From TrEMBL:
<dbReference type="GO" id="GO:0009252">
    <property type="term" value="P:peptidoglycan biosynthetic process"/>
</dbReference>
<feature type="transmembrane region" description="Helical">
    <location>
        <begin position="439"/>
        <end position="460"/>
    </location>
</feature>
<comment type="function">
    <text>Involved in peptidoglycan biosynthesis. Transports lipid-linked peptidoglycan precursors from the inner to the outer leaflet of the cytoplasmic membrane.</text>
</comment>
<comment type="pathway">
    <text>Cell wall biogenesis; peptidoglycan biosynthesis.</text>
</comment>
<keyword id="KW-0133">Cell shape</keyword>
<dbReference type="GO" id="GO:0015648">
    <property type="term" value="F:lipid-linked peptidoglycan transporter activity"/>
</dbReference>
<dbReference type="GO" id="GO:0071555">
    <property type="term" value="P:cell wall organization"/>
</dbReference>
<keyword id="KW-0472">Membrane</keyword>
<keyword id="KW-0812">Transmembrane</keyword>
<dbReference type="InterPro" id="IPR051050">
    <property type="entry name" value="Lipid_II_flippase_MurJ/MviN"/>
</dbReference>
<keyword id="KW-0813">Transport</keyword>
<feature type="transmembrane region" description="Helical">
    <location>
        <begin position="480"/>
        <end position="505"/>
    </location>
</feature>
<feature type="transmembrane region" description="Helical">
    <location>
        <begin position="355"/>
        <end position="374"/>
    </location>
</feature>
<dbReference type="InterPro" id="IPR004268">
    <property type="entry name" value="MurJ"/>
</dbReference>
<keyword id="KW-1133">Transmembrane helix</keyword>
<dbReference type="GO" id="GO:0008360">
    <property type="term" value="P:regulation of cell shape"/>
</dbReference>
<feature type="transmembrane region" description="Helical">
    <location>
        <begin position="132"/>
        <end position="152"/>
    </location>
</feature>
Length: 514
């Protein structure tokens, strides 16, 4: 499982790096203002549905069913189920897309009410949203095909295909902008074009695996009904984090112009560890848990759950420590160029720290949720999710005036911790979460190592100081990250959490094989 975890995490990391390049171009060309705000809201809409219908509720319901059918009844039955599900999804999402295109002005009044204060931002938001909305259909279909590949334990292409989003997006910004009214239009068209490329790559990969997925005509078979019954409640349960981010965006549109942009770029840095570790853990853990539980191997399921918790915290906590200490330099080096000024970068760094506080909770939600989904329970996360949504909204209202654009990120972080606490308590009551003593000990020692690393980074930062030139700043930041990583590794070794010699030997063996 750890090998699959690293495979998915590696491809996701590469995708996030390319995404960072894409975001740097967006910041440099559009800055933090009306155009950037309009584009980010236009992208938020299909992205929200993608996380809910594609990666969230649908995947949470589809992957366990598909894996179970594949294990018990063979490839033919599993392929038939996947093709029928793909047909149902395409018809439903196409209908939803048509409605969205027709009623986009009304939709934007709901998700971006603050845009009504400036007619230019509202009109641009409607136009861009109509361009990006078809991405919903394409990427949700791609998520289903990726779920099939994951169920077949072909994790590489399922993760690698998402590189296309950033590759096509970068190309659109650089080469299509001269032919568009402005950069925002080029970026919007790049979003939809990337969906076509991603779906095509994944379908091609399935074909190569001998698992062609030509969609069947929609029909509500008993299995499709079961899929729908499991999916509908999961729309809230598995998408709490994304819905909370959407609430953050709604609140941000009511704040001064540029608030949406400042929060977006902060969230992009936060998404590097969150996307890599959360996606890797959730993607690899769900089919593993499903397989163990289907075979009646309860102890093996607990062991897999514990290993995932250890892995994600081992890699997440140093990221939190590093971001909290180096948020300002990170935002300046990565985004403080062109139209996005150094002052904008420092403002965005405040939101980044607020997001980073909740990073462990955001990732743990991805680790704990599969424990429900693998057991066919998508209802319990719904009830928790509804409460978390209400709680997050109340916090947003309390924070928006005194904290402005920092309020929504802080509210999301606090809500994420409450979400994790609720999930963990219920799983323990059901004996579905049993932390071994070794796991608890490793978690405590990992927290201690991250705290010591943060103190060391802070001391070195104060001692060395932040240089003035861009090249020296890049070298400074890279050196600080390397120093923090080495310090963290040494501390883990001293505390007995890892054995550096065996880790290095394993890395050498892997490199020599390649």
């Amino acid at each position: 499982m750890f090998r699959h975890f690293l495979t998915v995490g590696g491809w996701t990391m590469l995708s996030r790096i390319l995404g960072l390049v894409r975001d740097q171009l967006l910041a440099a060309f559009m800055g933090a203002g009306i155009m950037q705000d309009a584009y980010q809201v236009a992208f938020r809409l299909p992205n929200m549905f993608r996380r809910l219908f594609g990666e969230g509720a649908f995947n949470a319901a589809f992957v366990p069913l598909f894996s179970s059918i594949l294990t018990k009844e063979g490839e033919d039955e599993a392929r038939s189920f996947a093709r029928r599900a793909l047909g149902v999804m395409l018809v439903w999402l196409t209908f939803l897309c048509v409605l969205g295109e027709i009623f986009m002005p009304q939709v934007l009044r709901v998700i971006a009410p603050g845009f009504l204060q400036t007619g230019e931002r509202y009109a641009l938001g409607v136009s861009l949203s109509r361009i990006t909305f078809p991405y919903l259909v394409l990427i949700c279909a791609a998520a289903l095909v990726a779920g099939v590949l994951n169920g077949l334990h072909r994790f590489s292409m399922a993760a690698a295909a998402y590189l296309a989003f950033n590759v096509v997006g970068i190309a659109a910004i650089l080469f299509a902008s001269p032919f568009m009214p402005n950069v925002a239009y080029a970026a919007a068209w790049g979003v939809t074009a990337s969906g076509v490329v991603q779906l095509g790559l994944l379908l091609w990969s399935c074909q190569r695996a001998g698992f062609g997925l030509m969609p069947l005509w929609p029909q509500l078979t008993p299995r499709i009904r079961l899929l729908v019954r499991r999916m509908v409640p999961g729309l809230v349960g598995s998408g709490v984090g994304q819905i909370n981010l959407t609430i953050d965006t709604i609140i941000a549109t009511l704040l001064p112009s540029g608030s949406v942009s400042l929060m977006y770029f902060a969230d992009r840095i936060n998404q590097l560890p969150l996307g890599v570790l959360g996606a890797a853990a959730g993607t690899t853990l769900l089919p593993v848990l499903t397989r163990h539980l289907a075979a009646g191997e309860e102890d093996a399921a607990h062991s897999a759950q514990n290993r995932s918790i250890e892995y994600v915290l081992l890699l997440t906590l140093p990221a939190v420590a590093g971001i909290l200490v180096l948020a300002g330099p990170i935002m300046i080096v990565l985004f403080g160029h062109g139209s996005f000024t150094e002052h904008d970068a420092l403002l965005s760094a405040k939101a980044l720290r607020a997001y980073a506080i909740g990073l462990p909770a955001f990732v743990m939600v991805k680790v704990l949720s599969p424990a429900f989904f693998a057991r066919g329970d998508t209802r319990t996360p719904v009830y928790i999710g509804i409460g978390i949504l209400v709680f997050n909204f109340v916090l947003n209202l309390l924070f928006m005036k005194p904290l402005l654009y920092v309020g929504p990120p802080l509210a999301s972080s606090i809500a994420a911790f409450v979400n994790v606490a609720c999930l963990a308590v219920i799983l323990r009551q059901r004996s579905a979460l049993q932390l071994a003593s070794t796991t608890t000990r490793r978690i405590v020692l990992t927290v201690a190592a991250a705290l010591i690393m943060a103190v060391g980074l802070f001391g070195v930062e104060r001692l060395v100081g932040f240089p003035a030139s861009l090249l020296l700043r890049m070298l400074w930041l890279g050196s600080m990250i390397v120093f923090g990583a080495l310090l963290y590794g040494v501390i883990l070794h001293v505390l007995g959490v890892i054995d550096l010699a065996s880790v290095l030997a394993r890395i050498r063996r892997r490199v020599s094989k390649r």
